[in-house]
Write a structure and sequence with these properties.
With 202 residues, this protein is α+β, with helices and mostly antiparallel strands. It contains 6 helices and 8 strands.
């Protein structure tokens, strides 16, 4: 199966989660996917992105009939926001930084980390880049339109929300600066990684 076919399967699986939970799940820091079973359901930003990515990777493996993503790949995304971006950057060899992040340069299903402060809680894990928020690009299956899915705890509406990618880039423009924002690509197959390059790679 071609990469585009299993990537479509990944995208559909992630959109299924977005469609099911957006607007129905609140935000709570430090709570991962297990929080979806709570009453009321809650999750934090890295927990939500980890669930989206692991679901997408597992869908790719099922659709392709082989293993584009290993068990280690899937397990590695279940971590805090700064580490998640670091893991994906190292594995894919791809990272965009700051104002190089745009509608034209982002991979179809990019993961974006932002340095947004957070106070004392942000010291709970090593954060070399200071990333305290992470979001995931997803695409509407019927037309491929890009959206940003995120668990948001500091601005309204709180909880799981969905925003078109162009609108999200506009409202996030102040953070899209060098040393403040990074975009990575989780959906790069093993065999393609060694030679994969991108503008802004570091």
């Amino acid at each position: 199966m071609s990469e585009s076919a299993w990537l479509d399967a990944s995208g559909a699986a992630m959109w299924g989660l977005v469609d099911r939970h957006t607007g129905r799940v609140g935000y709570k820091g430090g709570v991962k996917a297990i929080g979806l079973a709570a009453d009321p359901p809650v999750i934090d930003c890295s927990g939500w992105v980890a669930l989206l990515l692991s679901t997408g990777m597992e869908a790719a493996n099922r659709a392709s009939g082989r293993t584009p993503f290993t068990d280690h790949d899937v397990a590695a995304v279940d971590t805090w926001s700064d580490r998640l971006i670091e893991e994906l950057a190292q594995r894919s060899g791809y990272i965009l930084e700051g104002d190089r992040i745009s509608l034209d340069t982002l991979p179809p299903y990019a993961t974006i980390g932002l340095r947004q402060g957070g106070g004392a809680w942000a010291k709970n894990h090593p954060r070399p880049r200071g990333i305290t928020h992470v979001v995931q690009i997803v695409r509407r299956p019927e037309d491929g339109a890009p959206f940003v899915s995120e668990a948001q705890g500091w601005s309204e509406p709180r909880g799981l929300r969905l925003m078109s990618l162009p609108a999200w880039l506009d409202v996030t423009r102040a953070y899209l600066k060098r040393g403040e924002a990074w975009a990575v690509n989780a959906f790069v197959e093993h065999g393609a990684r060694a030679g994969h390059t991108a503008t802004g790679m570091c």
